[in-house]
Structure formats: C-alpha cells, structure tokens
C-alpha cells in the first residue's frame, strides 16, 4: 500500500534532541523569558499525555522508525491528564523531512471495540481517519500494542508557529493496551532523560534557534514509543 499524499494537511519540521537534567534546567530557564507557556497547561505549565500506539506482530511501526524511513505512518489514541471523555485518534506521518498530523475524536466505547478486535463498524464510518485505520488494521494486522505515559511542558512562539516541548518521566505499560485504565501498571524508563522537540512551519526564528543552540546538541530520531519498547 503506497503512502497517502495527505492532501490538505500542513507539513511541519520536527527536530528531536536528548537532554540531561542540567541541560533541561538551563534551557527551560532561558526559554521562559522569550516564549509563552502553553495556555492549556494547568499544572505549573505541564500536563500528562497518555498514548496507546498501534503496531503489528512484525513490529512494523517500530522497525520503520528505527530505520528512519522517509515515508511512514504511525497511529495512536491519545488522552490528556487521564481524561477518558476526550480521546483523539491520531495519525502521525513522515513524508521526506516533514511531519504531518491528522486527528479525530473517538469515544471510549469505540476504543474498547477496537482494542477487543471489533472493527467491522469502522469500514463505513463517516470519519476518514477511522476508515484509514480500518484499512491498516485489515491489511497489516495493526492493533493497539503499548501504552506510554509522559509529562509534557510546552513553550510557544507565534512567529513561525514554533512549539518547543520537554517530555520527561516516560513510562511504559510493556504490551498492555488498556489505555482507559487509570490504574494501569506502568514502568519508568530512563528518569534522567528528557526529550526536547522543536516544531515549526516554514522557518525557525534566529532568536529561538540561538536560544536552543541546536548546533551544540545531539539531534536524534527519538520516539517515546521506541524508548518504551526497549523495555518490552
């Protein structure tokens, strides 16, 4: 199946870097004087993100990420601060060096059907992304595999539509996909690592680039899903 063209979606540049605790502290204190804190964050500018990632028995999504394929798709269901009344089905796609994201709302009941393998209803659903997931689940036997929790802190700069995020306290459920269970047993990965993500549209303003000192940091292809799968 060829990669979808993603017509109508805007591609963004996304850079990822691994930070230690000292770098994280220093960079955060520089950015807060120039960038805005995410207005949706309620707990000291931070919130918890929980995602369940889809993959198959051949680890298709994981292998494509590790190999850095230029064209790939990753499906997940995401919620914030354990709010199971607000679930998003998301597809994150790579086309060459740009990142695209498409999403739609789904209900907790719909996710449970998907989790239990009841997917026939998805074939003629009115939401295009639900139908797209149905195709991938049917062709590649994708299913929800692993829940990943982490804490996100976001800084925003309007010019260039820049978002700088710090993702820390990454935890994994191993192969448990019960994303709606707030008491789901989770295992911490590496508590000393924070993933810095820098996302922007056409350009990264020079002032922000200088603050980030991107040239001095180790750029990588870090993925919370990939990190979590190192533990099971």
The main β sheet shows up as: 11 strands, antiparallel
| Beta strands, count | 11
Uncertain runs? none
Series of secondary-structure elements, N-terminal to C-terminal: EHEEHEEEHHEEEEHEH
Which structural class should the secondary elements be placed in?
alpha+beta
Nearest-angstrom radius of gyration?
18 Å
SSE diagram, text form:
Blueprint: E1 13-19, H1 21-31, E2 36-37, E3 46-55, H2 60-67, E4 71-80, E5 87-95, E6 98-106, H3 108-115, H4 128-140, E7 143-157, E8 162-172, E9 187-188, E10 194-200, H5 206-212, E11 219-220, H6 224-229
Antiparallel strand pairs: 1-10, 1-11, 2-7, 3-4, 3-7, 4-5, 5-6, 7-8, 8-9, 8-10
Note down, in words, how this protein is organized.
The chain is of the alpha+beta class. 23% of the residues lie in helices and 36% in strands. Strands 1, 2, 3, 4, 5, 6, 7, 8, 9, 10 and 11 form an 11-stranded antiparallel sheet that branches. A hairpin with a 6-residue loop joins strand 4 (71-80) and strand 5 (87-95).
């Amino acid at each position: 199946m060829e990669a979808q063209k993603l017509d109508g979606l805007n591609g963004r540049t996304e850079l990822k870097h691994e930070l230690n605790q000292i770098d994280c502290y220093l960079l955060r204190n520089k950015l807060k004087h120039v960038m805005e804190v995410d207005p949706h964050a309620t707990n000291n500018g931070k919130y918890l993100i929980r995602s369940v990632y889809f993959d198959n028995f051949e680890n298709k999504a994981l292998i494509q990420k590790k190999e850095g394929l230029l064209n790939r798709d990753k499906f997940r269901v995401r919620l914030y601060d354990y709010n199971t009344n607000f679930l998003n089905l998301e597809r994150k796609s790579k086309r060459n060096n740009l990142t695209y994201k498409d999403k739609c709302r789904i209900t907790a009941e719909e996710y449970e059907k998907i989790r239990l393998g009841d997917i026939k209803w998805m074939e003629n659903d009115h939401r295009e992304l639900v139908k797209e997931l149905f195709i991938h689940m049917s062709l590649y036997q994708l299913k929800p595999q692993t829940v990943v929790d982490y804490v996100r802190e976001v800084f925003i700069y309007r010019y260039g539509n820049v978002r700088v995020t710090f993702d820390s306290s990454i935890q994994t459920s191993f192969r448990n996909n019960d994303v709606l269970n707030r008491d789901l047993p989770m295992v911490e990965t590496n508590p000393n690592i924070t993933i810095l993500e820098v996302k922007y549209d056409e350009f990264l303003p020079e002032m922000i680039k200088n603050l980030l000192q991107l040239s001095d940091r180790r750029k990588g292809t870090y993925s919370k899903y990939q990190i979590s799968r190192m533990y099971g």
